[in-house]
Specification:
InterPro entries: NDR1-like. The chain has five helices and twelve strands. The chain has about 270 residues and is α+β, with helices and mostly antiparallel strands.
Length: about 270
């Protein structure tokens, strides 16, 4: 039965693929086609979505620069303000430098120079009691010269001053008030009183008339206010030290040599 069913099934015709080839072109056709390719006009149609445009390299550089600038602005939004502030500070510093230079040229400030003109010693003050230790009273006559061309000084009273012999205090006192103009030389007094301390032997012998050479150190601390015209600047300190070699600390001592130094903190 199966064989009969199979035999009864009609057979389908098989299809055969046949490839048709164009006949080879002849020599005349070749020459005609070459002539048309040489002198013909060609129109090429490309789909719109397949047209690409390549930008020049300059555009890529510009895009990179804008991108970097945007990043910098995002990182530091106050960069412009900071530049303006720095410019203003530099301008102010430049103006201050110029003004300071003009003042230095016109004023020509200089430290005052001190000289010991005279030293009077009184070894028996009026208030001394009989049998007590001598308390020498030293009276220094000082001369101060201001070399500044346009700057004066106002000295305040109450500065400290001492006389020492090899580090040992002999007498102490205070400085007086003083006003000094530019290119001016002024004389003033420094009165120093001795203490109850035991004096060195060489000082005691000199107070009694010994002719030994005595090295003394006079140290004074002044509070001064520089003045330029009518403008008074802030107060500052001035330290003066004078190394003096004298003979006989009786009445008027003889000054053999001296060297004074001034340290002014402007």
């Amino acid at each position: 039965m199966a064989e009969q069913a199979l035999s009864c099934t009609p057979r389908r015709p098989t299809s055969t693929a046949v490839t048709l080839h164009d006949p080879p072109p002849s020599e005349a056709d070749k020459s005609d086609s070459e002539t048309m390719l040489q002198i013909g006009t060609y129109v090429v149609q490309v789909p719109k979505d397949q047209i690409y445009r390549v930008p020049p390299p300059e555009n890529a550089q510009l895009v990179e620069q804008y991108r970097n600038r945007d990043k910098n602005e995002r990182r530091s939004p106050c960069l412009g303000c900071l530049k303006w502030i720095l410019s203003a500070v530099l301008l102010v510093l430049l103006l201050v430098t110029v003004i300071t230079g003009v003042i230095l040229v016109t004023v020509r400030p200089g430290s005052p120079t001190f000289t010991v003109q005279r030293l009077s010693v009184n070894s028996s003050p009026h208030n001394a009691t009989k049998g007590s230790r001598p308390k020498p009273e030293c009276d220094f006559t000082m001369r101060v010269r201001n070399p500044s061309k346009g700057m004066g000084f106002s000295y305040e009273a109450g500065g400290k001053t001492v006389v020492l012999h090899k580090g040992v205090h002999i007498a102490a006192g205070t400085t007086p008030a003083l006003v000094q103009g530019p290119k001016n030389t002024t004389t003033f007094q420094l009165v120093l009183h001795g203490s109850n301390m035991l004096l060195p032997k060489v000082i005691d012998m000199s107070l009694k008339g010994s002719k030994d050479v005595i090295p003394l150190e006079l140290a004074a601390e002044f509070t001064v206010k520089p003045r330029v015209g009518w403008v008074e600047l802030g107060a500052t300190s001035m330290h003066v030290t004078c190394d003096v070699r004298v003979r006989r600390l009786v009445k008027e001592a003889r000054i053999l040599s001296q060297e004074c130094k001034t340290n002014l903190q402007l």
